[in-house]
Amino acid sequence: MGRVLVILTAAAAVVACSVATVMVRRRIKRRRKWRKVVGLLKELEESFETPLGRLRQMVDAIAVEMQAGLVSEGGSKLKMLLTFVDDLPNGSERGTYYALHLGGSYFRIIRVHLGGQRSSLEVQDIERHSIPTSLLNSTSEVLFDFLASSLQRFIEKEGHESISSQDVKRELAFTFSFPVKQTSLSSGVLIKWTKGFAISEMAGEDIAECLQGAVDRRGLDIHVAALVNDTVGALSYGHYHDPDTIAAVVFGTGSNACYLERTDAIIKCQNPRTTSGSMVVNMEWGNFWSSRLPRTSYDIELDAESLNSNDMGFEKMIGGMYLGDIVRRIILRMSQESDIFGPISSILSTPFVLRTNSVSAMHEDDTPELHEVATILKHLGVPKVPLKVRKLVVKICDVVTRRAARLAAAGISGILKKLGRDGSVGEGRRRSSDKQMMRRTVVAVEGGLYSNYRMFREYMDEALRDILGEDVARQVVIKAMEDGSSIGSALLLASSHSVRTISNI
Ligand code: BGC
């Protein structure tokens, strides 16, 4: 009996020993894998880094490129497009105006009534719809017929309160969030599509004419009287409420900025006959490029696989359409190089399956167990990962969004520098203490990335303070707006009706 007991005890000890050995080995293996992941994360952080010195070089590069784009057509990656807008709304406009806004993911139709005073601005109706994905690579006819039919439904719903009873056509501004070479306030040709649109036969077409044609075919009493980039609409709206607004930036599906420039600085424009002496310039900053941009292997892959490769490099680092896909690519690579995410999910290999709103939801998940992160990962085919892996995902979101926000801040500072409103003189000498020299400057900001993503906002504001210094940053007001691009385009149209200050160039 005693012998049996000894044998059993020995056997148990052997089993316990081997279990322990297996466990220790597993733990060592897990630790090694985790160390690999930590190494990958470190590499990631380094390649996405945007130290202040680098941001300042970018600010300089943006100001230089802006200058080059104003001197000659094609002189810079920044197109610096003329808009034929020299007079921004000021609150005295009157009448009823419409705007149709084709953005990156939504389109909106609005009607505004203006009573001659800021306080009497009435946004009477607004409709917002997602753009059906089938439209993105349809034909010009399908796209414009779709827009015209939406306008028709909007007008039919108006009933008798509309202005048609006054026997005048409805005046409509077309807010078109794509690069256009304008030939007047009301006409212009599409340069190229961005943000996933790919309707091939349209490049070179007059956009306002296309919409007018579709509207006429449906017999609608609408006159497409202005063609307006969304940034220009946002600037108009900002200026309507606050005359210190001199620039506008959109952080939405795509990204872009416009600002008010002195006409004598627009050298490529031979005869800018404006009475105000200035004109709004649509920068199309999404196409900005500089060797100082922190471009990573993820950006290179994303660009190579995009519909518009070698184009819109800056937009692909800061645009809402792309941030989610950068995060997805990082998670995918990590899951290929270690098994911390479990078996590689095929969903995770699908481009654009992770949207930026999910990135913000994960980034701002404040539940102790990171429930939101777990849910989103589950939808990506990554069902069960431990808390430390979920924390890693939050960190990835942070790295990608922080870079985007800091680059965005450098973009805004570049505009301020070009306008001499960044508090610097000459070769980087700062005069931020000389408050006399600093004017209040308002930058209107629109777009879901800014308004719905707190961490993006916070990082951008922080970077602006870092770049400009506290004193100057205090004079720079970033004003967030909702539907400003659409409403602003209608206001712009109204103001162009009150005073026509610009003729052909
Ligand atoms: C377009 C711009 C537009 C921006 C924001 C970019 O992709 O090129 O024209 O202003 O998106 O919507």
UniProtKB/TrEMBL annotation:
Domain Hexokinase C-terminal: 247-494
Pfam family, one: Hexokinase_1
InterPro entries: ATPase_NBD, Hexokinase, Hexokinase_C, Hexokinase_N
PANTHER family, A to Z: HEXOKINASE, HEXOKINASE-4
Top-level division of the source organism's lineage: Eukaryota
Homology family: Belongs to the hexokinase family.
Record domain Hexokinase N-terminal: where: 41-240
Protein known as: Phosphotransferase
Keywords assigned: ATP-binding, Glycolysis, Kinase, Nucleotide-binding, Transferase
Pathway per the UniProt entry: Carbohydrate metabolism; hexose metabolism; Carbohydrate degradation
EC number: 2.7.1.-
